[in-house]
Write a structure and sequence with these properties.
It is built from twelve helices and two strands. It is mainly α.
C-alpha cells in the first residue's frame, strides 16, 4: 500500500494534483489506515497514470472521467472531438501571438499598415513624437468606425504631406504641443494656415464626406482638447477666421468679429 506522496511519485504528478483529482471526482478517495492516512493500491497508480496522460495531452479534466469509462469507439470519437477543439485553440493562440507581437510595433496596434506608413511620413516631415502620438490616437478612433474607408483615404492624406504649408502646420503644432508656454503666436500661425487651406478647399468645391457627418468629428475634436487644452484656443481662433472645428471644417454663416 502506498502513501499519497509515493503514489504521486509513481505517476509523475504532484501531491497537490492528486488531491485536486480527488476533489473533482477523477480519482476515488481511498480508505484510510488506522492512523488516518490515505493508502493506495496498484489500481490507483494505473488510474492516476491514465489521468496524467490524458491531462498532459490537453484533455479537459471535465472530460477525462467520461473517457476513462468509454469503450474503444467512444474513446476514439472523444479523441477526435478534443483534437478539433485543440486545433481551434491553436488558431486562437496564433492570433493572440500576432496581436501581442504588434504591441512591440507601437503604431501597428489597432491600425492598418497604410496609417502606419502615414505616421512614419509625419515623422519624416518633422512632426514631434507627441504630435504623432496625437494623430495616431485619432486614427485609431477613425479606423474603429470605418476600417474599410480609411484605406481609401490614405493616398489623399499622404499627398497632403507634400504641401509645404501642411508640413509647416505640423511643425508648428508640434512646437506648440512640446512647449509648456502658451504659444499664442504659434497658435495664430496654425490658425492662419488651417483657415487658408480650408478656404482653398471651399473654393475648389471640396465637400465634406457623408461619413464625417456623424458624431465622430466631435469625438476627434474632444480628443484634441484632452490631448492639449490649448486646442480649445485654436478652435476659437478658427471661429474668428470664419471656420468651425478642424476635423470637419465648415464655413460659418457669419464670421465672428
Amino acid at each position: 500500500m502506498l502513501t499519497i506522496s509515493q503514489l504521486a511519485g509513481y505517476a509523475g504528478v504532484t501531491v497537490r494534483a492528486v488531491r485536486h483529482y480527488h476533489q473533482v471526482g477523477l480519482l476515488p478517495e481511498p480508505e484510510r489506515d488506522a492512523s488516518g492516512y490515505r493508502r493506495y493500491g496498484a489500481k490507483a497508480v494505473v488510474s492516476l497514470i491514465r489521468i496524467r496522460v490524458l491531462a498532459n495531452a490537453g484533455v479537459p479534466l471535465s472530460q477525462i472521467a467520461q473517457m476513462l469509462d468509454a469503450d474503444a469507439s467512444t474513446f476514439a470519437e472523444s479523441v477526435q472531438r478534443i483534437d478539433r477543439q485543440l486545433l481551434d485553440e491553436i488558431a486562437r493562440l496564433e492570433t493572440s501571438r500576432q496581436q501581442i507581437a504588434q504591441l512591440t510595433a507601437g503604431d501597428s496596434l489597432a491600425l492598418p499598415p497604410q496609417v502606419v506608413g502615414y505616421l512614419d511620413r509625419l515623422r519624416e516631415i518633422g512632426a514631434s513624437p507627441r504630435m504623432v502620438e496625437a494623430e495616431r490616437d485619432g486614427w485609431i478612433l477613425v479606423a474603429a468606425r470605418w476600417p474599410d474607408l480609411i484605406v481609401e483615404w490614405m493616398p489623399a492624406k499622404l499627398a497632403q504631406l507634400d504641401e509645404p504649408r501642411v508640413v509647416r502646420l505640423y511643425r508648428v503644432l508640434s512646437e506648440i504641443f512640446d512647449s509648456d508656454s502658451g504659444g499664442d503666436e504659434l497658435l495664430e500661425e496654425a490658425a492662419d494656415i488651417m483657415a487658408e487651406l480650408a478656404e482653398e478647399a471651399h473654393r475648389a468645391g471640396d465637400v465634406i464626406d457623408d461619413e464625417m457627418q456623424g458624431d465622430l468629428p466631435d469625438l476627434l475634436d474632444a480628443l484634441a482638447v484632452e490631448t492639449d487644452p490649448r486646442a480649445e484656443r485654436l478652435r476659437a481662433l478658427m471661429r474668428r477666421r470664419g471656420w468651425s472645428g478642424w476635423t470637419r471644417m465648415e464655413r460659418l454663416a457669419e464670421r465672428p468679429q
